[in-house]
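Review form for a predicted model. The reviewer records the input and the model, then writes brief findings.
Reviewer: anonymous (R2)
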Amino acid sequence: MMKTERQESWKIQVPFHLDYCLNCGQVFRWKKLGNHWFGFIEGHLYRIEYEESSQTIRALRISGDTGRTGADSEGESRRRIERYFGLYDSLSAIRESILTNLREKGYNWFVGKFDDIFSKSLGLRILRQDVWEVAVSFLLSSQTNIPALERKLDALCRLFPQNEVRYEGESYYRFPKRESLATLCEEDFKRLGFGYRSAWLCEMVRRFRESDFRSIRTETYDRQLSFLLSFPGVGYKVAHCILLFGYSVMRAFPVDIWISRWIKEVFHVEGAPDRLTSWGQNVFGEYSGYAQEYIFNVYRNLGSDGGEI
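Model under review:
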């Protein structure tokens, strides 16, 4: 096991809310113990905390990627964390873009309401995650609530002890690569509680090619969406989750049960996920994904909780 490295700390000059980022339905395997969050970024296990009063991030890299040796170069760990948490996104520009789009589309009555939503969730950022983990996680999220999905993903990861990193009596697991999941069969996945989703996962494992998933980063939105929808079990919601959280396609607008309820209650609009997705993109513009996450956080996490994702 690699030696624990020295903790780094630095101040940031932009709005940031660590809890919102990691507890808003875009990621499922970070663990909070006390004031610290533990999770993997690009194969490295980190312990991270954020002190809002001083705008200070404190990060300890506990273990590096098993495929790498040696310490990070100066500033590399910091840049990795800032990329992952989307700290280079200008929230003020995103806010103004969304509000401008609302005005242009004739929703002036909602501008003030959305500004309030944005203020309540300020500091929430879209994470830059590994597309393989995102694709598998959201494929398995269908008709499942977040706590149950977290437990099942943890059980899946524990099947591969070679990915374990232990720290202060706790075990943390890197997400298994496609080659590892290819050693399992549909019955193995069913024993973990994935049910009918197990067949979808087997097919994704069979068809997944890293080169294909990498190459669509430069494709048009329509081609990206068409590619993802070709996988069994990937509908509009899952595809848009992959686009937003795996590819940073900010115009993606995932519609889950919470967002569809909110749209119905506030705008009196109903319909299939593809219709509501197009509606959301039209209303909120090029940063529809940010609008979706801010609404989700206020409606689900700051209002009621529970339910399916």
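Findings: Confidence is low (pLDDT under 50) at residues 304-309.
Further findings: The domain at 89-119+250-309 is CATH 1.10.1670 (Endonuclease Iii, domain 2).
Recommendation: see findings above.
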